Structures are given as structure tokens and as C-alpha cells.
Amino acid sequence: MRVLLVGAGGVGTAVTRIAARRSFFEAMVVADYDLARAEAAVAALGADGGRFRAERVDASDETAVAALLERHSCDVLLNATDPRFVMPLFRAARTASATYVDMAMSLSRPHPERPYEQCGVKLGDAQFEAAVEWEKAGLLALVGMGVEPGLSDVFARYAADELFDEIEEIGVRDGANLTVDGYDFAPSFSIWTTIEECLNPPVVYEADRGWFTTAPFSEPEVFDFPEGIGPVECVNVEHEEVLLIPRWVGARRVTFKYGLGDEFIEVLKTLHKLGLDRTEPVAVRDVRVSPRDVVAACLPDPATLGERMHGKTCAGTWVKGVKDGAPREVYLYHVVDNQWSMAEYGSQAVVWQTAVNPVVALELLAGGAWKGAGVLGPEAFPAGPFLDLLTAYGSPWGLREQ
Amino acid sequence: MRVLLVGAGGVGTAVTRIAARRSFFEAMVVADYDLARAEAAVAALGADGGRFRAERVDASDETAVAALLERHSCDVLLNATDPRFVMPLFRAARTASATYVDMAMSLSRPHPERPYEQCGVKLGDAQFEAAVEWEKAGLLALVGMGVEPGLSDVFARYAADELFDEIEEIGVRDGANLTVDGYDFAPSFSIWTTIEECLNPPVVYEADRGWFTTAPFSEPEVFDFPEGIGPVECVNVEHEEVLLIPRWVGARRVTFKYGLGDEFIEVLKTLHKLGLDRTEPVAVRDVRVSPRDVVAACLPDPATLGERMHGKTCAGTWVKGVKDGAPREVYLYHVVDNQWSMAEYGSQAVVWQTAVNPVVALELLAGGAWKGAGVLGPEAFPAGPFLDLLTAYGSPWGLREQ
After folding, report:
1. Domain range list for chain B
2. What residues of chain A score a pLDDT lower than 50?
3. Where is the Saccharopine dehydrogenase NADP binding domain (chains A, B) (predicted)?
4. Which residues of chain A neighbour B287 with C-beta distances below 8 Å?
5. Hey, what CATH topology would domain A151-349 get?
6. Positive or negative CA dihedral for B94, B96, B99, B103?
7. Residue range A2-102, CATH number
8. Cβ A284–B293 below 8 Å, yes or no?
9. Exposure of B35 by Cβ count < 10 A (0-12 exposed, 13-18 middle, 19+ buried)?
């Protein structure tokens, strides 16, 4: 396997550090808009970097990306950029007849009249429209293959295959107890993206209604996260799992709730109330600026906070249903301690947890344990081999009976 | 009496509309940095504007202001600008041997080491330093003569003279139920100034400790405001009354609490937490802007909201003590309904309520019912004539036994 990794930010850099310890691939080309960033990622691997090389590429230029895939004879494109670049990279892989893997899906657009009731363009719609074409060509696009979406979808498939006869509800639940020294308020991930994700209408799936949306921050609940993280206030957020899971796993209801916590929810609501979440520029004395950019500029850059960060992050899937005629409820989860990921890989916990899952998936595709054609989510593949290999990577998962 | 009114913003404009109906003065010169604004205020008076004329002046240029006082033979300067211009206007009045009246006091500076325990430079300190000099010259500076400070101080004096033998605590309490159509969040006053006022360390007076400060938003309480406004969450805020009242009225404790309400308090705390209250510019892509200016630019201009506003604003003074050997507790208050002030004067309630009080004071000074020399607060004068004249202006006050 020869891999083109596009994006050498936090997640892309962690991908190189995890992959460098595995032998399943022959070469990995690390490409970024900023060549220096790609070179720094490769240089940081030191003696382990023999199979890696850096390139410059504009992820929005699908012709250039397709040419780069062909020039390096890559058979896989792994997309580690932000979701604005999903479609050009997806099309570039198709043009070059490469396998495509990403950690998100193509973006949504709210319903023009009833944004908080009906879906407009859904996450992934643009990719699934091309599914038949990919399948006919015998090519695979594995979409949403990070941690959430990604591992959370693998957990859903595992629950359906091994733990339940019938499933009432699948709820992905994400929470953390991360703190950052020296800051009163310092998000561990991009505030710009968090605003986008959390203020979009959340999507919910119900078997008898299909997909529908709600107002932001709907259905608050306190979820008790394992391994000492404890109870965190969670709310509905638009996320890929809700679009992916129902396509392959039978469940009467599918939700995604993000453990933002009271404080973060209040911050996001306040930013929205004051119009500070807006991206369109406003006039301020003699200049024009985007309010959301000003908010981001006032906060520290989360990519630089790993050394000051403490605590754990948890991704997981809560499933409620029936097994052998008895009600059952489980939470399948994966926890990363920032202290461990910084010591082992020099990557902060949230970034490392996102990066490890696509590397495991690539290894399963390289070995043939996972194979397929079309546009498929992680739950389209057998879960057992994935979970076993993740454990072999030194990062075990857990199961809690509720 | 010939008056120089400096500042033709919301409050200055309302002053002209209220004064135009009274005969106690001979002439009023309306001066603003923006001549068009002064001209608009005078033009709006129509046939009632005979005694008024507009001038341009820079309030920070004390020489120019003194010259303007002399050129128009004004014997009173009424300051209706923001508190940054208190000191130059105060000095200009002294130079021209005019009576000085303002609605705030000179600005404070927090204690450099213990901002939330000890006072640094207090509100009005710069003015009271000149008190002996004004007194020797036989000149009067009447400071803090708006609604709060102003009418609230008159209420304190009235309570001490007429309602109590001994006072335990005087607490100014300000609350409103104003809403603005078409906006989820639209403050009825400048967000820039509110941030300044509410994030400064609040000051409290106790007879055995003197003046001291606390952390922002301290000692929250729910105060029940009269005339249908109802309960509002109030917190300590830095305000002039706490510095003025103890100089002339005996009380064991003096506080000022602002009925910001939970929502507004949360907004201010969030802005502070995110650093969006800062005035120093931050770099945002290729420009530099002050985050507090961006917050102001995202919200509607409160001066333009009168037509869309509904509800009432209440200013008042709660007093607890002993009368004839029995415990007593009263709330002396003044309520303005926005619908009434818009219909009667075309001024929104908060602005009109601030403006009426200095006009009443000028009329008492013109008639000799109030007289004095030095730097004096409203509570240095007899309260009865003020409250009677305010009622005669068509805006009665109330007393509630608690």
C-alpha cells in the first residue's frame, strides 16, 4: 500500500507518528498547502521516517491532487484536512482510481424554511450520490473513519452483531475532563469549528420518521463517562454517525450528543445571542472583520496546548435494546489520557484519538480483513478485527454494562 | 440663568426637550463635537427653540469650553457627555467662574495590587481634591446630578431627614423590564459603558471600614421592583452614590446594586472569560481591532431603539433603619414607562429619566431653593423642594414600605 496523506496539521502529524511504527504500508507521502508543515511532520519522525516524504499540494485543486496520487503511484488517499476539502479530495481519488478514506463527510446545508425541523442537504449527501458510480468501478470510499465518526460506528456494528438481538436506541456520547493550565477558558479544539458544528441544526434518526433536525443544544442529558471523567452535560449536535449508522445497522433511534458541559454551552449560546458567531464581516471603525475570527483570535491556539493540558477524553457508543429476551444497555468506549498520548507520541489526546483509527483501518484494508466497493461507512465492515487491532496498537477499548 | 449644555447625544437632546417647557432660564447653548447633532437637537424643538442655539465644541479642550462659556455669558455648565470628559469640563467651568453640574463623576482606577479588596483612585476623587478651592472661590460644582447618581442621592437625604431616626443600610437598586422588539438581545444602553461599569471592582461603604471593593457581580440578590416590573437579579456595581451618600448622610452601610438580570450578567461574564471585553487591539488576519469595539458593532445602537422598546425602568433607594424605636424599611423610587416618555418627549425611558433630574436641579438653583459652594452631591441639599418640583414636572415618585 502506498498512501497519500493530505493535511499535516495536528491530526495528520499524529497519523505519521502512529503509522511510522507499523509495517503494513510501503510509502506515505505527506502533503500540505504549507510545505514547511509537511516537512516538519516528516522530519519529526527522525530515523523512522524512511518511508515518508513531504510534498506541497492545494487540497481544493482536485487535478493537482489526482496528479500527485499518480506521480507517487499511491493507491490510497487519506484526507486529514478540514471538511471544506472533502469533495475535491473525494473526486481526486476517484479520478486516480485510488481508495479514499476520510474522518468526516461532505458538509450539510440547513433546510431553507424549516431549519430546526427538516433536513436540508445532509452530511455526506454529496458523497452518497456518487456511491453507485464508485461501486460499479469497484472502488472504495471509506467515509467518516476517525474516532467520531469512525470508532463510534464500529462500536455500533459490534453491538448489533455481538451484544443485541434488537436495538431500540444507539446514542454516540462524547465527553472529556480536559483542563488547560494557565487559562480560565481554553478549548482543546478549534473554536471556529466548534461553533460551526454546535450551532448547525442537530440531526436525529428515527426508524418511523427518517432523519429530522431540532434546535441547537436540544435534549440535554447528563451522561456519566468512565475512567474518572464522570458526569458531563451532553446535548444533541449535528454529527456524521447519525447519517451513517442507520444505513447499515438496525436501530429505532440514533442520536449524537456532545459533552460540551454547561459552561461551554453557555459560551456558545452567548456568542450566538450577540452575533459573535457570524462569519460575515462587520464594520468596526475603519476596518471590516468577521466576528467569529475575532473570537478565535482572543483565545489560545488549541494545537499549542498539549503540554499544558491535563485529563482524559472519551469517545463511545451507548446502546439500549434486548438480548435473549432481556433488556440490556451498554456503553462501548475508548479513553485517551493526554499525559499518555503526549509521552508516547507527542500528540494531545483529542488529536491522537482521531488519528489512530484511520491508521488501523488502512492496516485492515492492506491485509484484506476489510474490503468492499462503493461509498461505505465504518459500520459496513466487520467490527471484531478493528477492535482487536486497535487493542494491539496499545490503546484498548472498554465495555460497561449500564 | 444662562446654560451651556455640553453633549447633544441621547441625554443632552432629552435635556433640551424637558428644559424648553420651563421658564427658569434665559438661554441654553447646546454644544457638541458634532455640530450637526447639536443643530438637530435645537431644530427638533421647533417654535419652542427660541432660547436655544447650537455650537461646536471639543469637550476635551478646556480652554475652548471656558471661552465658549464666556462668549455666551453662561453662568452654568451642564455636562451631558460621557465620564471621560468630566475633568476638562469641570476645570473649564472653574476657569470661567461658572456653576458646574454633571451626571457622573471623575473616573476610578483599580488598586494596582488588590483590586478586589481595596480602592485605588475612587470615583470623584479628582473632583473632591479641588473642593476647598471651589468653596473658597464661592463657586458650586454639583456632581452626580442625574438619576443614578442624582435622584437616588436625593432619596437618601429625604429618608434621613423625614423617615428615619437611625439608618442601618442605604442600598440604591436599579431595575427594569425593558424589551426591544425584533432583537434576541439588545441592551437599552451602551454595551461599551456597561462592560466598563460592571467589570470594574464594585465599591461598598461601611462606617467602620470606610470604602472597599469586591469582585465583580458580588452579593447577588433578587429585588422586587414596583409598578409591575417585578423581581430582578441585582449585583454590586461600582457607582457614584456609594462615594457620595456617606459624605452627607449617616448610614452604617451603603451599596449600589444594578438589576442586570441573570442573562445580562452571564453575557458580561462570558465576554470577560473569552477576553472579548478587552479594549487593547488584537490581530485578526491582516487588521487590528479592539474586541470590545467588535462586540459593540455586533449589537444595535441603543439610541435608535426607543420606538421598538417596551416596558418601564425604575431607579430607587432602599433604606433600612429605625424610626420612633421601631424597625422600618422603605423603597423610594421613580419609574418611567417608555411608552409615556416616547409619546411625551420622543426620548426613550432610560435617557429621559437621566435628563429630567439635572433640569429640576437647575431650576432649584435658578430660584435659590438650592444654593451652596464647593464640590457637593445632591444629598448636600434639601430633598423636599426637589421631589416636589419633579412631581410638578409630571413625573411623580413613590414610596413603598417594605
Report:
1. 2-102, 151-347
2. none
3. 3-142
4. 287-289
5. Dihydrodipicolinate Reductase; domain 2 (3.30.360)
6. negative
7. 3.40.50.720
8. yes
9. middle
Neighbours of B264 (CB within 10 A): 19
SS3 content of chain A, % helix, strand, coil (to 5): 40, 25, 35
- Residue B191: φ, ψ to 5°: -65, -35
CB contacts < 8 A, A to B, total 72
Q: What is the pLDDT of residues A29-83, one digit of tens each?
A: 999 999 999 999 999 999 999 999 999 999 999 999 999 999 999 999 999 998 8
Pick A276's closest partner by Cβ from B273, B290, B295.
Answer: B295
Among the partner-chain residues A185, A267, A289, the one whose CB lies closest to the CB of B294 is A289
pLDDT at B399: 98
Min Cα–Cα distance to chain A from B274, Å: 7
Query: Does A270 reach chain B within 8 Å, measured CB to CB?
Result: yes
Looking at the predicted complex, does its ipTM rise above 0.85?
A: no
A285 contact B CB<8A: yes
Q: What is the mean pLDDT of each run of 10 residues along chain B (402 residues)?
A: 96 97 98 96 96 97 98 98 92 98 94 96 98 98 97 98 98 94 84 86 97 95 96 95 98 96 90 92 90 93 85 97 98 97 94 96 98 98 98 96 92
| CATH pick for B151-347 out of 3.30.360.10, 3.40.190.10, 3.90.1300.10, 3.30.559.10 | 3.30.360.10
Which helix (H) or strand (E) is B291 found in, with range? Answer: helix B291-298
Q: Which residue of B lies nearest to A186 if distances are taken between CA atoms?
A: B274
Q: CB-based contact (8 Å) between B273 and chain A?
A: yes
Closest CA of chain A from B180, distance in Å:
14
Alpha-carbon distance of A38 to A42, in angstroms, equals 6
Residue A285: list chain B partners with CB under 8 A. Answer: 289, 293
Q: Note whether B388 contacts A: Cβ–Cβ < 8 A.
A: no
